[in-house]
Amino acid sequence: AMAGPARSLKLNFNAVAKNIADMVTVPVGYTATVLYRLGDPINASTPEYRNDGTDSAESFAFRAGDHHDGMHYFGLRGRDDSDGSSSNRGLLVMNHEAITPSYLHPTGQTISGSGSSAMRTVPNEVIKEFHAHGVSVIEVRKNRSTYEYRGDSAYNRRITTLTDIVLSGPAARSPMMITAYSKDGSRTRGTVNNCANGYTPWGTYLACEENWAGYFRRLSTDDANRTAKELASFRRYGVSGNGRELWATATASSSDDTIFSRWNAMKLGSSSNGSDDFRNVANTYGWNVEIDPFNPKATPKKRTAMGRFAHEGAWLGPVVPGRPLVWYMGCDSRNEYIYKYVSDVGWDPRDADRGMAAGDKYLDHGTLYVARFNADGSGNWIPLLFGHGGITPANPAYAFGDQADVLINARLAADAAGATKMDRPEWGAVNPVNGEVYMTLTNSNSASRTLASTDAANPRFYNDPKGPGGTAQRGNPNGHIIRWAEQGGNVAATSFKWDVFLFGARAGMDRNINVSNLTSANDFSRPDGLWFARSGLLWIQTDDGAYTDVTNCMMLAAVPGRVGDGGAKTIVNTDGATTKSVTTYVGAEPGESKLRRFLVGPKECEITGIAETPDGRALFVNIQHPGEDTRPNYTDPSSYGSHWPDGGGSRPRSATIVITKNDGGTIGAEGNAGG
Ligand code: FEO
Ligand code: CA
Ligand code: CA
Ligand code: CA
């Protein structure tokens, strides 16, 4: 049940200063400990990571992947850790979104040729990269004042781009899902670019597929072989080009060659037996993948009822017995949409121990909605249903065939529904105190958010003379955080009320830009990760923040108010020649008592992924891709962009850290915003 009104939640640390040190900086009185790094072994027979690029491809099936991202802590006393009894031992489940190839192989990727002739010539490098993507399940336990992971736990598991996965829900077994791997469209192989995440009330994890489209190879020669519908879909999702990492170009005679050719989404038709026919393979990616961390033998399932897009994550709303369950979701690209999924049936607490069978009940039968934000501060959820509101075979942009087609092409259905184009939706978070939903809109550029297209929910267009990377950028380079309250507190409501909680900006900027009146203790740019502690404390993480010449990416703690606590505000935008005033709705200015910088990461990293133990005394945070921007000179380790976390001349590694308070207290704040 929901907690009562706010009491006294107070930040318990002094703000950390912006800095560009190659280390994790936390407040005085706190300790950050490295827990789980790229390459760390997860079984007893895998050797320690050498971190010089020579660790074998096969060994990576039992090592931490790269680019740690979204994560969740499941207490090991049972699936329901809400009683706080399981803070000493749990399962940490996390995504490995992508790779930094420079540091994964001896001297980077081996590639011959260039452009559309570029080829990966060392298949083992590609196999290593397959394993370095995906998900980790690791057991962690308290050890004195901090935590460690168990290298030999039977729960430890990797899910990768090679794992067999079931397609479940309304789009499974559609003719649009048939591939050489699954002639009835009921399965696919692997998951990729798992960005943020979600969890369920029955103790399972959701790994969300974000920038999957870029991994597929589909050259322009394929266009002539495809239908108008297929081309409209490929264009809307960006399935074209050589394929990031060039996986489809690798070949091997000694192993199953389709592990490479499945990344080729072209209609090949060159083999007589159809073994190379992966024309539909891209339709089997772009979903939320349910994983049962408590059952290592359970096959993961892609839950197609939740729609296919560039999923950032899926955030569970308030769980009330008898009421439907809701997950809020964002599609992270410029001018994309915010969605929610509402289960058909109400929550039955007896399902808490049913694992993936509960997933079949709540995640395969429900309604996908997309959000429209109105100029008067109200909003609407529009259902994406075949046959309704322009989502029909007669639609001029895309002739929808059935509900499977609607879910596979959710972006096109949302276009037809007239949803609001947002400035890149990233993470969401649901306030445990009052059920209000927050979502980061990380940034937009002047091509996608023009002065003319500013609206109440995406209200800023400005020139930041010293934006991300220290260079001038126009549009909304610093991003903002929107929030909404469902009508009547009902998760299945079709209308809501919204405002903008915070605007990213550099302290000292014009108040039409620094709308939230940020100071040097709490200024930030490009909000991305977002997470509510059980106390009602909100954590904000940044990706490629502005002023990377003066600060690395960071994490801040906020004590939020509620939707509507700041009122209407008119922002005056200018491109230098023309001005446009936009009336929006803003949260109360936080001030330094309610918003402070808690952490700054090492060089060239992103701070993303956060989980806490039920007692609120340990916070797990992911440090993603330190040193990724600098191209290394392998004969001179001092040229590496970062040496975090191992120091010396080492290659940088993405890693999970655990943060504890030296006096054993709760992280970030004392007290509670609820009862
Ligand atoms: Fe993977 Fe939108 O961040
Ligand atoms: Ca992100
Ligand atoms: Ca981002
Ligand atoms: Ca990143």
SS strand fraction: 25-35%
Describe the sheet with the most strands. Answer: 9 strands, antiparallel
Portion in helices: under 10%
Instruction: Give the helix/strand class.
Output: mainly beta
Mean pLDDT: 95
Distance between the termini: 10 Å
- Please tally the β strands and state the result: 39
What small molecules does this complex bind?
Answer: MU-OXO-diiron, calcium ion
Helix count equals: 7
Widest β-sheet, arrangement of strands: 16-17-19-20-21-29-28-24-23
Overall morphology:
globular
Task: State the low-pLDDT regions, or none.
Answer: 1-6
Cα-atom radius of gyration: 24 Å
Region (Disordered): 627-675
Keywords: Membrane, Transmembrane, Transmembrane helix
Biased composition (Gly residues): 665-675
Protein name: PhoX family phosphatase
SSE diagram, text form:
Layout: E1 8-11, E2 30-37, E3 68-75, E4 89-96, E5 111-112, E6 119-120, H1 123-132, E7 134-143, E8 146-149, E9 157-159, E10 164-168, E11 187-189, E12 194-199, E13 205-209, H2 228-237, H3 258-261, E14 288-291, E15 301-303, E16 311-316, E17 324-331, E18 334-336, E19 338-346, H4 356-362, E20 366-373, E21 378-383, H5 403-408, H6 410-417, E22 422-423, E23 425-430, E24 437-441, E25 444-445, E26 462-464, E27 473-476, E28 480-486, E29 495-503, E30 527-532, E31 538-542, E32 554-558, E33 567-574, E34 579-586, H7 591-594, E35 595-600, E36 606-612, E37 619-624, E38 655-661, E39 669-672
Parallel strand pairs: 10-15
Antiparallel strand pairs: 1-39, 2-38, 3-4, 4-7, 5-6, 7-8, 7-9, 10-11, 12-13, 13-14, 14-15, 16-17, 17-19, 18-22, 19-20, 20-21, 21-29, 23-24, 24-28, 25-27, 26-27, 28-29, 30-31, 31-32, 32-35, 33-34, 36-37, 37-38
The structure holds MU-OXO-diiron (FEO) and calcium ion (3 copies).
Pfam families: PhoX
Biased composition (Polar residues): 632-641
Protein name: PhoX family phosphatase
